[in-house]
Write a structure and sequence with these properties.
The complex is a heterodimer of chains A (257) and B (410).
Chain A lengths: L12 H21 L19 E6 L8 H10 L8 E9 L3 E4 L13 H6 E10 L7 H5 L5 E3 L5 E3 L9 H5 L6 E2 L6 E2 L5 H5 L5 H5 L5 E5 L6 H7 L16 E4 L7
Parallel strand pairs in A: 1-10
Antiparallel strand pairs in A: 1-9, 2-3, 2-4, 5-6, 7-8
Chain B lengths: L22 H24 L7 H15 L4 H6 L8 H4 L10 H30 L2 H10 L8 H34 L12 H27 L6 H32 L2 H11 L3 H25 L4 H32 L20 H21 L31
Classes of the chains: A alpha+beta (257), B mainly alpha (410).
Amino acid sequence: MEKQKWNLEPDSRREFLANLVSGAATATVLMVVGPGASADHGVGGHSKKHRDLVYVINVNNCIGCGNCVRACKRENSVPSEYFRTWVERYVITKKGIYVDSPKGAIEGFKKINAAIRSESQLARTIPKMCNHCDNSPCIQVCPVGATYRTDDGFVLVDHEHCVGCAYCVQACPYGARFINPEKKKADKCTWCYHRVKAGKLPACVTVCPNKARMFGNLHDPDSEVAKVFKEDRWMTLRPEMHTHPYCFYVGLPREVR
Amino acid sequence: MELPHDALVNYIFPNNAHVVWSLMIVIYPFITGLIAGAFVVSALSHVMKIKAFDSIANFALIAAFSFGCFAGMPLLVHLGQPQRALEIYFTPHLTSPMSLFGYVYGSYMVLLTIEIWLIYRPHFIRMANQTTGLAGLIWKTLTLGVTTYHPDSAKVDHKMIGILAGLGIPWAFLLHGYVGFVFGSVKAISWWATALQPIIFLSSAVVSGMAMLLVMYSVIKRLRREPIDCGMLRTFATILWAAFILDLGLEVLELIHAHFQQSHEWSDIQPLLMGPLFESYAFGQMGVLSIGPILLLGVVAVLEVRDRTVVVLSNIGAFLLIFQVLVMRFNVVIGGQLISKSGRGFVEFHWEFFGKEGMLTAMVILTAPFVVYYIISRFIPIFEDPAARPEAPAPADGAVEPAPVRQATP
C-alpha cells in the first residue's frame, strides 16, 4: 500500500507552543463553562485550523462501476440498506432529468430504457458521500456534541456520546447521514479516518480504477488534488447551502444536487 | 404526480428511504403546544386578571402540568440511545437548538410545580390537619412541614403566584417557540426553513391548548353533572376564534410569501403541497379543519345565540381545532421529510400501528395526560377554590382560615 507524504504534525515549535497556549486557554474556558462544553470541537461549526486534506471527485473519470461502494461496505461494515458512499447516474434529456442509483450502485448500473437513452444530452455518474463541510450543519445541530471535527478537518461521530436523535440526519443537505439500524446511532462516511491515520488512502479511493476519486494534501504540489486547485477547476455540491464542503468536484453538471 | 426539479422519475437518496422523524416527533410539539396553550389560559386569570377565566385558571394549570409530565416521553421513545437522554443536561452542545430542550422544559416544569403548590398549599394544609395514617403523612409531606396558614402567608403566596404566572408566560412561549426553531433552523429542508416557524408553532400552540381546555371543561362538567358557565364559554370561544384567525393568518402568510418569492424553496414546496401533502394540507389543515372552526366559533363570537348553541358550536369548533393543530404538526414534521434531499423525488411515509414509534404508542402517550389529570382531580379541587372549602375545620391557634387566592365563579 502506498504511503502518503502528508504531514499531520505541527510545522514548527512556535506553532506547537501557540497551540499549547491556545489549547490551555480553551480548556480553562471549557472547564468554567461546564463539562458539557468538553464535547465541543469547534465554534459555530467553523474549524479554526487550516485544512490540508481534501477529497476530489473527477466526474469525467467516473465509469459507475460501483467498486467504491463495495469497498466502503467491506471496509466499514455498512448495513445493507444504507450507504456511506453511493453513485448516482444523471441522464439529462430535453424532457427532464433522469436520476437513479440502484442499491447505491453497489452492483453498478444496468442500461436505462431506450426512450430516455434516445433523448439523452449528457450522462454522468456522480459519486456522493459526506462532504466533511467546514460549516457543517450536522456539527451545529448535534444536541450533545457527539458530531465533531478533528483537528485535521474530518467530521466524525463519537459513538460513545451519540444519543441517536437524528437531528444531524435532518440537517445534512446531502443525505450523507443515516441512523445505523444495528447501532441505533448516527453513521456516515469518515473518509476512512482509521486508514488515513495509518498513512493509507480511503478504501473507495484505493479501488477506483479510473482515478475518479482522489484524496490528498492540498498543499503538496505533487499531489493530484493540488493540481485541480492550481487550475481552479473545482466545484462543490449545493453551494447555496453555504456549508463549505471539503469534498470537491470536477466536471459536475449544474443539474446535480 | 408532478415531480420537483424536472425529474423524470421519482429519485430519492439511498439514505432517504425512510422518514426518520416519525409520529413521536409529531406528537412531541403537539403536547408541548398543549402545555403552552393551557398555561396561557391560566395566565389570563392570574396575570391579565380576566375575571371570566378565574373559574378555570387552576383547571388550566393542572391540565398544563398533566400534559407537561409527558412532553419528553415521545422524545425518549424516539431516541436511538434513550439511556443517554440525560446527556442533554450534562453535555449540552449549545449551538444546537435541541440542546436547550432539557433546560427549558425542566425549568418550566419546576415553575409550574411551584405555582401549583402555592395555589394548593391551603388545601394540602387542610388535608394534613384532617387526615391521619398514610394519607395524612402524604398530605403532610405535600405541606413541606408547614401545617398552619397565616394571612401573611396567603398574601406572600398570592404575590408569588402572580409573579410565577407572569414569568411562566414568556417561559411557556420559549418552550414552544424553541420547538418551532428546532424545525425552522434546518436549512436543508425547505418546508421547515422559515423564520416564521417558531411564531406559527407558538400561535398554533395557544390555539390547541385553549381548544383542548374548552373541550375538557365541557366534558368534565357534563360528566360531573354540573352546569356549564356559558358566559365564560362564550368569552373563551371568542378569544379562541381570534387566536385561530391570527394563527391561520400566519400559516397563510408563510405560504403566500414562499409562493411570491418563487425561490428555490418554492420549487420543493409547491410539488409537495400539490402532491403527497395535498389531502392532509389543502383539504385537512387549511380546508375543513380551518374553515369549519372559523365559521362555528365565529357564530358564537359574533351572533347572539342560545346557551345550548354556544356549548355545541364552541365544542365542535374547538374539537376541530385540536385536530387542525395535530394535522398541522403532521404536515410540518412528516411533510418536510417527504421531500428527498435529492430534490427530485418524494419519500413515502408508512403508517405503523404496533411499531416502537407507531400509532399505538402515540395514542398511549396522548392518553396518559388525561389519566394523570383524572388521578390528580381525585385528590385536589379543580374548579373550586382550594383556599375556601366549606368543610374546613376551625383554624389552629394563631392561624386563620386560608384567604381565597382567587375568586371562584359560581
